[in-house]
Every structure is written in C-alpha cells, then in structure tokens.
Amino acid sequence: MTRLRTLLDQVPLTLLAVLCVTLGLAPFLPEPHVWEKLRMLVAGTLTAPVDMLDLAFHGLPWALLVLKLLLRPGGPTRT
C-alpha cells in the first residue's frame, strides 16, 4: 500500500481530473463509454473481451482518481 501511495503522490490531481473528463468519458455522445460498459456489467452482458478491455481502459482514470483521493493525507479516517 505504501508503494501505491508513493506512485499516486507523483501524479498530479489535475492530470487525473483531465483524464477522467477526456478519456474516462469519451466518446461523449450518445453516452459516455464507461457508463455504457458499467450498465453492461450490471446487466451481465459484459462478456466480450473487447468490452472488458474497454471498461478497463475508460475506467482506469476514475479508479486512479478515487484511489488518490482515498489515500491522500487527511483522507478518510480509519477507526
């Protein structure tokens, strides 16, 4: 966990935000790709390998942003 935190500390928060808005939501119309793939995952229709890779590709910026926010100093407290 320490190594992951060190790596995430080196990535600027603004870069992750820009990646989420651009790559994470592209293509914007008719609906964001990551949203389509998440709906397929919930429905159980995400079976094609290309769709799984698509979800990973478009979801990675979001996952990194969430991890960075959770692992930052002053993030959620643990009891």
How many H/I helices?
4
Shape by Cα distribution: elongated
Low-confidence parts lasting 5 or more residues at pLDDT below 50?
none
Q: Bin the helical content.
A: 55-70%
Largest beta-sheet characterization: none
Instruction: Estimate what percentage of residues fall within beta strands.
Output: under 5%
Structural class: mainly alpha
Query: Structurally, how many domains make up the residues?
Result: 1
Give the rounded overall mean pLDDT: 85
Q: Total number of β-strand segments?
A: 0
Query: If you compute it from the alpha carbons, what radius of gyration comes out, rounded to the nearest whole angstrom?
Result: 15 Å
The topology string of helices and strands comes to: HHHH
State the end-to-end CA separation. Answer: 18 Å
Give a description of the structure.
With 79 residues, the protein is an all-alpha fold. It has one domain (2-71). The protein is built from 4 helices and no strands. The chain has helices at residues 2-9, 13-22, 33-43, 49-71. α2 packs antiparallel against α4 (49-71). The longest helix is centred in the last third of the chain and has 23 residues, at 49-71. The radius of gyration is 15 Å and the shape is elongated.
